Request: fold
Amino acid sequence: MEHMPLNFPFLAAALLAAVSFYIMIFKKNLIKLIMGIAMMSSAVNLFLVALGYRAGGNAPIYTDVPEGPMVLPVPQALTLTSIVINVAVLALMLTMVMQIYRHTGSLDSEKSRKLKG
Amino acid sequence: MAALITQAPILIIAIPLVAAFLTPLIGMASKKARNALVIVSLVFVAFLVFALARDVVINGIHVYTLGATSPGQTIPTGFMVPVRIILEIDAMSAFFSIIWSIVSLAAAIYSLSHIANETGQTRFYTLLLLMVTGGFGMMFTGDLFNLFVFLEIASISGGALIAFRTRFGDTQEGGFKYIVVSAIAGLMVLFATGILYGQYNSLNIAILAQAIQYTTLDQIALALLLIAFAMKTGMVPLHLWFPDAYSVAPASITGMLVITSHACMYAAFRVCFTLYGAVIDAPVVGWILIAFGLLTMFIGVTMAVFQKDVMRFMSYHAISQLGYMWLGVGVGLAVLGNPGLLATYGRDAMSGGIFHILNHAMYKPLLFFTGGALFHLTGTRDLAKMGGLAHKMKWTTILYIIGTLSISGIPPLNGFSSKILIYESVYQFNPIFTVIGIIVSILTLASFTKAFHSAFMGAELPEYKGVKGVPRSMIVGMVILAAGIIFITLFPAQIVNWILHPAADALIDRGAYINAVTGVIP
Amino acid sequence: MLSKIVRTVANQLIVFILIFGLYVIAHGHLTPGGGFQGGAVIVSGVVMLLVAFSSKELKKSLRERVLTILESTGALIFAALAFAGIGTAFFYNLLVDTPIFGRIPPTGPGPGDFWTGGVVPLMNFAVGLKVVAGLSAVVLAMALFSSGEEVEE
Reply:
């Protein structure tokens, strides 16, 4: 763990965000679009948790914690709220895709478009 | 009464939330009690909003700390920085909350008969009250993360409400596009909040405004925030989802969605003027806002001219009117660093932009409600299939005419007052902008007249002979908004002095905002 | 509906999942956890039951009216606890120094004391109830929708 460069989590978050942008722009299947949004929310959550890290830190709770510095607890609270919100958004998007499939019979975003112009 | 005004900020957010969770329980027992609960809670919230706004304009900024030993104690004893969630209401927030309370009350009354034939009405009212909570939270919050949370609450409820009528297929498509755009915008706001927190170790807007410097990471955060809020308000070129979502929703929800996009504009102003106010590169960002505002105005109205679907046509006009607001406030931002020009025409340009927000919030939901009345009577949104409806819908025709004259800026209605304020001040900045604005006004009037002809004028069509008139609660909802328009028409000077100049000054003067949080503890 | 072995094992396992979820909800103020996390654990147990038994069978036990009532009750308990301190400020922790969850622990590392925290453990239970009811309703509605039935009003 000590040999990992310290901005490795930020690079991973940037890579996840880049892949998710590629998916959202270039893929046509609606389910893949939802997966792209889930991946982007994972990227932002990873970025937030990695912000709070202090080298050699322990978990920010007092129950049976060893001596030493602690990591920041506020980004962990932000991440938790963000996960809850993304659960609700993903559930809503999946329900709408199920209804679109029932009405138009196709999951392709080009073929199931009715609103144009 | 004084205790009620002290607790008013949190009551305004909490009462719709509690009512939203009481609605399923009461809705299982009786339908009339549920409708009464919705209307009574929204009326009480409107009363609180007006009392609080009056107090803010007279006495200054209100601050509310959640969970402290007294509501005004922002910094706990022995600490140096605020650690709790703080709500901060200045004249700009109070202005937006007045608009939101009036429009949500009108929309709730309108919905009483507009969705009377749908299934699942209890869930509709629950989601509507949750959307009201989200809107008020966005306008009252004092820190960036709460802005994200309330933005997502409003977006999720709005998206679910757009897709409410599941028996049509295009509502699902519009709702899906709305949710995707809102999710991406929310994630960008969260990313920018993370960047700012990592640098300055605080989420509070006032503390960040004190500590901010204009490093590269801060510029990235500013770009992310502005793009996210521009995406949500339908600025060109990110406007492709806007007509799809607004044309398929139930008409009362479309009216509330317009105000939600105004609230995102409020958040963009809060970021540009208060958070980054001390260090922002004002001419560059101002010119970017002006350029995109002009583009939005022009493309919105030109796309609207050849639409056949009445709600889609009105939503393109909503895009173009939003461009007027960006233009007015953008001119104010561009001269922010120059006190002489700011006093000459910058403050007036900002007042004009904010006045246009007020007027747009009155006539745009009114026009959407008339479109909904047309859909309710005829079952279609296609203008080519309608005709001769003025015989059946007398009140709606009059209200549509009031709305059309307002949006085109015909004197003496309120649209004219705000547009003349924008034209006069923007003319001194650059005359070409005024010319483009006048051309857009003329095209707006032309397209609305064409729609009026095809929907209302002409002989009565045989297929609509048997329909009854528009239900009474829908007319009451529309009359509330029309009363607002007439009130602004009759008293423009009082509105400017009492509401708009304090709001514009609250944006320009960020010192008062910061002092309310870090200053003297009562 | 899957085979008898799967159904029997699911019936036995749900007890342990429920206990673990309740532990995570209850100790939210001492160890990582809390309302949403414990609620999500319990909902994963419900999903296991949904897969083992089919959604038509589970619909007879988890009726939609009961889930709606539980969800609203959880949210209203949370709001009532938040409003209880309105004399001082909203969300004021008025159960500190009282016998209900009111002990004040010393600052610093040490074994956790369960009866601390004030209003926070009670709010954890309310949020846990709401999350269980809400997410179970969502999962059940999606399963019923894709198998062809609709949830009535």
About this structure: The interface with chain A takes residues 145, 149, 152, 156, 159-160, 163, 166, 168-170, 172-176, 179-180, 182-184, 186-187, 190-191, 193-194, 197-198, 203, 243-244, 247-248, 307, 312 of chain B (CB under 8 Å). Chain B has a mean pLDDT of 88. Residues 339-378 of chain B form the longest helix (40 residues). The CA atoms of residues 33 and 399 of chain B lie 30 Å apart.
